[in-house]
From TrEMBL:
One of its GO terms (molecular function) is RNA binding. Keywords: Methyltransferase, Transferase. InterPro entries: Alpha/beta_knot_MTases, MRM3-like_sub_bind, Ribosomal_eL30-like_sf, rRNA_Methyltransferase, SpoU_MeTrfase, SpoU_subst-bd, tRNA_m1G_MTases_N. Residues 31-102 form the RNA 2-O ribose methyltransferase substrate binding domain. Pfam families: MRM3-like_sub_bind, SpoU_methylase. GO terms for cellular component: cytoplasm. The lineage of its organism: Bacteria, Bacillati, Bacillota, Bacilli, Lactobacillales. This is rRNA methylase. Belongs to the class IV-like SAM-binding methyltransferase superfamily. RNA methyltransferase TrmH family. It comes from the Bacteria.
Amino acid sequence: MLEINSVNNAKIKNIRKLQQKKYRKQEGKYLIEGFHLVQEVLMNHVQFDCLLASRDAFDKLETKQDIDDKKIIIINDVICDHLSSTKNSQDIFMVLPINQPKHYSFDYGKWVVLDNLVDPGNVGTIIRTADAAGFDGVVLSQESVDLYNPKVQRSMQGSQFHIQIIQMPIIETLTNMKQNGLPIYVSLLDKTAKKLNNCPVVPQLALVIGNEAHGVSSNVEELADKKIYIPIKGKAESLNAAIAAGIMIYHFA
């Protein structure tokens, strides 16, 4: 077990840099914080590089019997505040490797595909909803918010350790899905599309959710096997992307 007491320590400096996308990409690692996420890592036997915590926080950790002492770093309150991306840090963190496949074959299942979603809260909520509904996974386009963004990680609430989550080019993804027999259902704010409540539940599909402001891109729309929409009964112009996704996910669950 290592103990570090200075924010100027080289290891701490490198870990803090993981709050930035370019350093996450460069190092192939990302940072999570908070008891719930750390517990999810341990309960799901996810590989991690190191656990950092104050002495008090480490003592409160419920699942710690099988942690290799060499992976534990005890830090002080100053370092905890230095590493935290929240106002009220829980004083416990983990560094994990980024394990993204270069290629993936979508042979079967129910998937959500996010086309250029930029709000981290929306993305995390959609992933959490897909997990709760029993979907197999979520694919983020490369133009979407970074999966390892701290706000995305927090809003997923551990679902990232339950289902497959991949960030890869969306056209490559949808083409592979179509080749493997997964129908592509594209959500549109368009009354010429089919009403969601007229769509039967199917055993497998790719459900595409578009950008919060502009919807799905034209090249994605061209790949649709079915275009669907949620009827707006009141005077609201549209639904929040995460709410709309949640309605559709549970419709097809």
